[in-house]
Every structure is written in structure tokens, then in C-alpha cells.
Amino acid sequence: MATIKLPAVLVGGSATSEVEVKGATVRELFDNHADEHGPELRDSVLEDGEIKEFINVYVEGTPVDGVDAEVPADAQVRVIPAASGGR
């Protein structure tokens, strides 16, 4: 199973969270996670079946550009919201 690492900002906690999920593609990972834990994470990352514009998903440290990206069975997947600054 792949391990999804999530920042606190997406899971509503105070620390990074990890969860193991089955799936051969990014889409399958988030759909399977939603089936087990509810749609909140998937809905935070995906919109209209694609990765949201300001969310970055990395598989084994490599950025993916779509939900059909392959995910090896023992991969580490990171979800990182884009950071923005202000004055």
C-alpha cells in the first residue's frame, strides 16, 4: 500500500498525518481513501476530477501533473498546498 503524507492544514490537526491506502493511480488513492474515511481529503485535493490548481502532489518526490499518474504499491505520496505570501 502507498503511504499518503498530509500536512496539518489539510487534515485539521497540528501535525503531519500519514495514512496507508491502496491504489495504482493518484485518482484511485484518493477515491479509496474517501471510501474508507469520507470525502473531505479527496474534495480538498481534487476538483472536477483533477488536482486543484494550488495543490501539489508528489509520488516518491516527483511532482505529478494528473490524477492518472501511476503510484507504485509501496510509494510515498505527499500532498502539499501551494504557499503564498502577502504583506
Largest β sheet strand count, sense and barrel closure: 5 strands, mixed
**Strand proportion:** 25-35%
Rg:
12 Å
Q: Order of strands across the biggest sheet?
A: 2-1-7-5-6
Oligomer: single chain
Order of helices and strands: EHEHHEEEEE
Number of helices: 3
N- and C-termini, Cα separation:
42 Å
Tell me the structural class: alpha+beta
Poorly predicted parts: none
- State the helicity in percent bands: 25-40%
Provide the residue-averaged pLDDT. Answer: 89
Q: What is the general shape?
A: globular
- The number of distinct β-strands equals 7
Descriptive account of the structure:
- It contains three helices and seven strands; from the N terminus they run E-H-E-H-H-E-E-E-E-E.
- The protein is globular, with a radius of gyration of 12 Å.
- With 87 residues, it is an alpha+beta fold.
Keywords:
31% strand, 3 helices, Mopterin_synth/thiamin_S_b, 87 residues, five-stranded mixed sheet, 7 strands, MoaD/ThiS family protein, globular, two-stranded antiparallel ribbon, ThiS/MoaD-like, alpha+beta
